[in-house]
Amino acid sequence: MNKIIITAAALLVSGVAFAQVGTTVTEGAKATSEKVQQGAQATAGAVTGEPNSTVHKTKAKVHKAKAKVHADAAKDAAGNIGK
Question: What pLDDT sits at residue 67?
Fold first, then answer.
């Protein structure tokens, strides 16, 4: 009986840890994607002329902000893995 309880507790703890790792990986990937899009928009803004240049630069700033949010979420999720 004790072995069943210990096994169930171990599975529960490992399931929570895997969920946190999944969240960390997902948010990290989203942050990376936003950084790549930011770079693409910044490059497009540098190459194109006005008024499209301003549009691309603004989009780059939006992607930078989104990347920061996702990076912070990944950091928080990584901090909760062992808890």
Answer: 93
Question: From CA 72, how far away is CA 17, in angstroms rounded?
Answer: 18
pTM more than 0.85: no
| Three-class DSSP labels, 25-76 | HHHHHHHHHHHHHHHHHHHHHHHCCCCHHHHHHHHHHHHHHHHHHHHHHHHH
Determine if the peptide bond prior to 51 is cis (ω within 30°).
yes
Residue 80 identity (one-letter amino acid)? N
CA pair distance 78, 35, nearest whole angstrom? 20
